[in-house]
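Entry 14: structure prediction run for Elongation factor-type GTP-binding protein. Input pasted below.
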Amino acid sequence: MLRSACRRAGPSVPGRSSVAIAGPSARPSARATDVSVPSQPSSSHLHRSPTTRISAQSRRISTSVPRASAPSSSGSASKAVARDFSQFDRLETRTFSIISHVDHGKSTLADRLLELTGTIPQDGSNQQVLDKLKVERERGITVKSQAVTMVYDYDGPRDDFISAFDDGFAPKPGRYLLNLIDCPGHVDFSYEVSRSLSACQSALLVVDATQGVQAQSITVFELAKQKDLAIVPVLNKSDLPAADPDRCALQMEEILGIDTTLPGQEPLLISAKTGRGVDSVLRALVERTKPPPGVEDGKLEGREGPSFRALVFDSWYDQYKGVVSLVSIADGAVKKGDRITSCHTGKRYEVLSLGVNSPEMIATDVLRKGQVGWIIANMKDMSEAQIGDTFHLSSEKVEPLEGFAPTVPMVYAGIFPIETTDFLKLEEAIQRLALNDRSVTVQRESSMALGQGCRLGFLGLLHLDVFRQRLEDEYGHAILVTAPSVPYKVTWRDGREEIVSNPIHFPDDSERKGKVTLLEEPMVRGVVRCPEEYTGEIMQLCAEHRGEQLDVSFPPTASAIRSVQMTYRLPLSEIVTDFFDKLKSCSSGFASFEYSEDGYQASDLVKLNFLISNTVLDSLSIIMHRSKVLYNARAWTKKLKDIIPRQQFEVSIQATTGSKVIARETLSAYRKDVTAGLYGGHYERKLKHLNKQKEGKKRLKALGVGRVQIPTEK
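Run finished. Output tokens:
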């Protein structure tokens, strides 16, 4: 059968065969691209080589079978097509993102989409292809958004096709350029999700068919609706025995407001792990999403150089290539060697290189409207690649694209080098990581005990922990991280308001009486969702953390277990320590928690200081509510007593609020038996040696004030 499809070609380059992938005859010729792949020369055909024409229909069938049994000829052909980037700018585009709750299968679905489009080989070894950071692979979570370009051969609408649009829009058969942006799922990385969605036309809302709509599913759905994206509902893990698609569809209607009975809103039942039904996701992206205006059929009219505008939605630092900007082309086109200007800084740059990710960085000649790719320009400083900036040709003046609102940090912590001489290297590493993650705020600070360091603001505790691990993994820095704190609002008597995130600058009790009129702490509105049997333990946990209950409801679930949803107003300082660990512990891991900021509230706050041998250790200072000061003071002094090594002199460990000592522990000194060598004689001989030892310890203690070393690893 394959022989009947072969035809003789004209003279060609010896040793190469031409494989033409073409759609139906109704498709314009621009959709078919000849791709040359190496082959072994034959002795009987040194000047002629066979040309095999494989239809889009046969390729679709071959990719719909299980991955282990996919024909090798089709797989190699699709891989060859995916690697030819010369015609990418002439294809009709779709830009989409994958959004969902944590562990609902975003990264696994992305792997299957890349395999079906021939972007990566179908050898069964692909796991978290787009999770490239070491911390992502170790923790099994997505931290950074990743963009990748794919080519999909669409064979046209099927017989039961119903348009999702009022004008009856139906895509034509042919090849389409799909730009995938994989987003994180954790609430701490919502800024990554928000700016990535700004470059998209549609979003795949992935929901676990065994768990249903979760807290973060609602959050990312609302972000996508704010960007006016087309939503494609996807029910993953539908092959599991516990899956209940009907209940999940009911949840989508009642919680998210998605009418699953309308054309274009039906949930797609898939299994990303096995690949079952994933081909329908690619079809839905083409059929349920319209192309950007002016990109229909991949036409070039209006997509040349003039009126070029590109939105910078991500950037990172490459130690060999410098600053790399990830852009979404909104208008026109840009080529290598063009002069571009930043709307934010007004500085001009020359485009040194550009291209797309598929999934590795591939250089191309041009990027046109509708494409997502990267640009390397001669940027001198890392701060010049501003997230939300607009690039345009230097010879034109254009209206800037809508950028991103700056984020407000929720958690602050100090980061210090273990060796004080490494501060400059640490600061440079922090700035490079902050370029890659613009939700982090950085400012210098100094500590009497720890020396020079940086005060960083994060969106949550996981965000802080991931940033710390990336500093250690990618830059090899051994660092000290102080206890996390939150921003408090101080109103002074002269009417001035100040946000204080560093406990060093927080007023003491003695200073408050004459200078401060009001102290406020940040509040959050938290939603806890758990099985009904754990309601009592979670209500007690929230009460212990000064939570105020606002609402209790019983939403429909995708399983037979009845769940309860509780809304609380909690102080942010209460949930940035061990709240999540306690929540998972008391609910056996079934509870989920999501929060959003909810303004400030007046509170009775105090600063807890710690003194080691009468010397204040400012790096351990904590701001907390007065009702919890005594308990924390006793716990911390006992812990410090356990970890501080004994000295040759007595060490006092004190916890104070203002000038009042509320907890104290004493670390006894080492003592040598100086009378061991005395045998008999008058007791004054022993007393003389003991007094001499006492005087020596007094001098040693005077010299040792402030020099007690606290082990940092504990």
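Notes: The radius of gyration is 32 Å. Will compare against the previous run tomorrow.
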